[in-house]
Amino acid sequence: MTEWRDVWTRAALKERDRIPLRQREKILTALHLFCTTGKGDIETIKPFAGEYRLRVGEWRVRFALDAARAELVVLHVLIRGGDYKD
User: For labeling, which of 10, 37, 45, 63 is most exposed (least CB within 10 Å)?
Assistant: First the structure.
């Protein structure tokens, strides 16, 4: 099992910082769990090749995996319904 290092885009950091603290902590915990164990509610995003989503309650973390660098690149952190628009 590869352990992933999370890398955040500028857009994802801005989105994360606007999330209320309690929900943000849940998202970061779920992301850490996935990075270290591979466990989580993960699905591919069909219209976006090579992208995945992690579901954390009503929040969605859109990300891509860079296997060569063992990086999980967080693209967006959005509330359900606003996660696949771009």
Answer: 10
At a CB cut-off of 8 Å and minimum separation 6, what does 13 contact?
none
CATH dotted code for 5-79: 3.30.2310.20
Which structure tokens are listed for 46?
């069909």
pLDDT digit string, tens, across residues 23-44: 999 999 999 999 999 999 999 9
Asked whether the beta carbons of 47 and 62 are under 8 A apart, the reply is no
φ/ψ of residue 3, rounded to 5: -95, 125
**pTM (whole model) above 0.70:** yes
